[in-house]
């Protein structure tokens, strides 16, 4: 018994010391996290006034899916103006050819590919053809699934499978075909465009809202995958586009608070998107101030977010 008492006398202090050591390590880790979180917050505030420098896209091979109209067309044209080699992908042959012709008339480099991205086998054929024609694709812009203002108001509820295939599932197939080489080379940029349905539910458009909420999850999962695997030079940018803001061919849209929302052209929207991409922002919106609203809606209580959504509801009407 005396020997056991002596052993216990030594063991208990050792256990206490180990617990104290573990507690100290935990406190150091917590302090380090808090310190870095504060630094990141100050850095984000600083970058509001002094944004990161714009990276060049000259001679990058950029694939733009949905280049036949609207914002996708303008992104393709502006990328070409910046010196990128643009691969225009669309299901509409004539619209896509028009985009390529405009780029070439302006002295840019572009090629046209026709593909139904809702079919996996077509995407695999497209990927094989592009790798054969041009090799490595370093930038991927997915502009499909962004609805027009009128379609949001006048079209019947979407077919669930078609909406998910166009808005979400095709992302996975494209990523499967083009991301591995970006990882191998540690170079690339994937740009996911969603509508505001990815921030807030749109009346009578549940399949679209669900799909675009999922696109946000996909983009954030991609960012985490790249971070965990220590791939620093492949970037992901998630862009939220407010459809009623981009005044393309619909000039008769009326907004409840025009001084807050206003409208911009597809040219301005594309320029804003490329500005965010070239600064490697992980998330942005068109217009830019709506991103802050989206973050605010995530942290406020449910009742408060409902009141804000009711206040800022577009109140869309067509003249």
UniProtKB/TrEMBL annotation:
The keyword DNA-binding does not apply. SUPFAM superfamilies: NAD(P)-binding Rossmann-fold domains. One of its GO terms (cellular component) is lipid droplet. Keywords: Membrane, Oxidoreductase, Transmembrane, Transmembrane helix. The keyword Oxidoreductase applies. It holds the Pfam family adh_short. Belongs to the short-chain dehydrogenases/reductases (SDR) family. This is Epidermal retinal dehydrogenase.
């Amino acid at each position: 018994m005396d020997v056991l008492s002596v052993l216990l006398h030594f063991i208990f202090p050792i256990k206490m010391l180990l617990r104290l050591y573990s507690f100290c390590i935990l406190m150091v880790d917590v302090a380090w996290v808090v310190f870095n979180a504060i630094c990141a917050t100050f850095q984000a505030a600083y970058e509001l006034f002094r944004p990161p420098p714009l990276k060049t896209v000259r001679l990058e091979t950029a694939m733009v899916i949905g280049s036949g109209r609207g914002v996708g067309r303008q992104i393709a044209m502006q990328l070409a103006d910046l010196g990128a080699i643009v691969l225009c992908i669309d299901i509409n042959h004539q619209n896509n050819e028009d985009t390529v012709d405009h780029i070439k008339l302006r002295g840019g480099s572009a090629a046209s590919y026709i593909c139904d991205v809702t079919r996996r086998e077509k995407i695999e054929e497209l990927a094989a053809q592009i790798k054969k024609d041009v090799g490595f694709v370093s930038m991927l812009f997915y502009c499909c699934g962004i609805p027009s203002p009128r379609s949001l108001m006048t079209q019947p509820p979407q077919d669930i499978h078609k909406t998910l295939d166009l808005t979400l599932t095709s992302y996975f197939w494209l990523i499967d075909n083009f991301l591995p080489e970006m990882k191998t080379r540690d170079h690339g940029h994937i740009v996911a465009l969603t509508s505001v349905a990815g921030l807030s539910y749109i009346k009578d458009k549940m399949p679209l809202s669900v799909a675009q909420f999922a696109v946000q999850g996909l983009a954030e999962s991609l960012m985490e995958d790249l971070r965990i695997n220590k791939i620093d030079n492949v970037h992901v940018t998630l862009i939220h586009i407010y459809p009623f803001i981009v005044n393309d061919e619909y000039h008769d849209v009326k907004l409840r608070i025009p001084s807050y929302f206003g409208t911009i052209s597809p040219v301005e929207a594309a320029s804003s998107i490329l500005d965010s991409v070239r600064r490697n922002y992980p998330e942005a919106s068109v217009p830019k101030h709506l991103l802050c609203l989206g973050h605010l809606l995530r942290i406020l209580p449910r009742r408060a977010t409902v009141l804000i959504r009711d206040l800022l509801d577009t109140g869309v009407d067509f003249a």
